[in-house]
Design brief:
- There is one protein chain.
- 51% of the residues lie in helices and 0% in strands.
- The chain has 146 residues and is an all-alpha fold.
- The protein has one domain.
- Helix 4 crosses helix 7.
């Protein structure tokens, strides 16, 4: 699947808007309880524009924390470049607010405990920096969405 990580984490049904970088034909998938809880923390609004903007922020954050190997975990193909992701800060609130909601939440702790890749869980569990912990949680979450 092209853009597997991005498509699965956003979990939006494809509507043909190429700028969203969602795999053509993708249909939103059912999530487990903890996945759904973490999704609600990562994407507190349900507007497509906000979800896409937040995902752009998360892609940049994960890249800056040297966890970008998660993007190619299930498929080596990417059809976007980082410079084309137009927005680093999500429009409705800051990444700091999101990090404060996600880090140490029951949902994030449950997701990270299931992570099969120690790099992601290690970033979440051991970093003293909340932004890095947020990146670790998102990478662990995305790595579980196959």
């Amino acid at each position: 699947m092209i853009n597997h990580f991005r498509t699965r984490v956003m979990n939006l049904t494809d509507n043909g808007t190429l700028s969203e970088y969602i795999c053509p034909g993708f249909t939103a998938q059912s999530l487990t309880t903890y996945q759904s809880d973490l999704y609600a923390l990562l994407f507190p609004t349900n507007t497509r524009a906000d979800i896409v903007a937040r995902m752009n922020s998360y892609i940049m954050l994960i890249t800056s924390c040297n966890l970008s190997n998660v993007f190619r975990l299930y498929d080596p193909r990417l059809t976007y470049l980082l410079q084309n992701l137009y927005n680093f800060t999500a429009p409705s609130d800051s990444l700091v607010t999101t990090a404060n909601s996600v880090v140490d939440s029951q949902a994030a702790n449950a997701i990270v405990s299931q992570a099969k890749i120690p790099l992601y869980s290690g970033m979440y569990l051991s970093s003293p920096i909340k932004m890095q912990r947020l990146a670790g949680a998102i990478a662990a979450y995305g790595s579980l969405l196959t």
